[in-house]
Design brief:
The structure is a single chain. The protein has about 90 residues and is mainly beta. The chain is built from 1 helix and 5 strands. It has a 5-stranded mixed β-sheet with strand order 4-1-3-2-5. Strand 2 and strand 3 form a beta hairpin.
């Protein structure tokens, strides 16, 4: 279960936001994320919260599902599990 009460779907276009993110994005918020390295964009919906910590290197960390991460061109490899994205809150 996600923090919003939905059943987790690792292939859905959904995202968890860091608990340290201020202000928090409400559940249901649509966010357009674009992979800086390749220009691929995807609209994801916030449906969960993460316990990951905000750092100077990752100021607004988003935790994408594996499916969304792959569609943005990320490689599902433990050593390459991060991509730099821009994000635009759509509503």
């Amino acid at each position: 279960m996600t923090a919003s009460g939905e059943v987790f779907d690792n292939n859905a276009d959904t995202v968890a936001t860091s608990l340290s993110r201020q202000p928090q994005l409400p559940f249901g918020t649509l966010v357009q994320v674009t992979n800086v390295a390749n220009g691929r964009s995807l609209t994801v919906r916030v449906n969960d919260r993460g316990t990951f910590v905000q750092t100077p290197q990752e100021p607004k960390c988003l935790d994408l599902t594996d499916g969304a991460f792959s569609r943005l061109g990320g490689v599902l490899d433990p050593d390459a599990g991060h991509i730099v994205v821009t994000q635009k809150v759509l509503g």
